[in-house]
Amino acid sequence: MDEGLKSELQKQGIFVTSLEELYNWGRKNSLWPLSFGLACCAIEMIAASMSRWDLARFGAEVFRPSPRQADLMIVAGTVTKKMAPQVVRLYNQMGEPKYVIAMGACAISGGPFKQGYNVLKGIDRYIPVDVHIPGCPPRPEALLHAFITLQQKIAAQELTGPGRARHLDAGAPGEYPVPQFGEHDLLPPKNPDVWQPPVPAHT
Amino acid sequence: MTENPYLFIVVLMVAVVGFAVGPLALAWLWAKKFSPAKPGREKGAVYECGLESKGDAWIQFKSEYYLYAIIFLIFDVETVFLLPFAVAFSGLGVGAFIAMMVFLLLLVEGLAWAWMKGVLTWK
User: How far apart are the first and last CA of chain A?
Assistant: First the structure.
């Protein structure tokens, strides 16, 4: 529908919408996060959900203790290699549609522990991350910004066609392989279907 | 024409059932049309805390635990009824007092039985 006509109708008190917009509007304003924290970023996540930053303004105050009821996984903190299989399994157990925010330097890349033997160098090696937030730890405002970014991303998703949202695509996987504890490292060390880092320019 | 006085109950019932079934039916239709089901081994797992469950879920509890439940009940019921009895004590007649004593005797009998049986000794 033409945006100008829509705006004119709205001035007369007539609201017009499409099924896609209505669906996305509902989805983006009821993102229920899974309540789990891995390290200090979780403290900032808790602060963001409390009265001062008030995550409830974005419809996301209902932290669910069960992955079956959650829409959004906030990976808040250092993902150790011991913990990574559990995180991936929790992601697998979430119902569709599901989204992931990787919060903080550790969750997106390993952060200050990147050179350590026991820390995963970013959870995006195993599960598809929608929004990355840098910072050590990021302030609650940064988490709110990530929320708004995710909401904008959801609002732009299509209902049908080749560019449709992941959970509407029957071909897209609903579960991702859970890494196993190998002799020296997690096996496999990454999921190549999910993790495609840019190739350095110099070849 | 006089209206059947039960008509509004029927209307209410239809509305209530529609209110409950409508969203479920819509969700079902939506899933059929747009959103494909994505079941999986882990999504369907019983335990949902990130860890895989170990061992058998069909473990047995000892049936002797019923004794603890019974003893708990004795003291629980006793407290629930004794408190209002104590509050209203000065205004009660002889009949109510005797009735309460009979009730207490029944409970004390249960306690005595459990004591005789040796349930109160920690093993």
Answer: 47
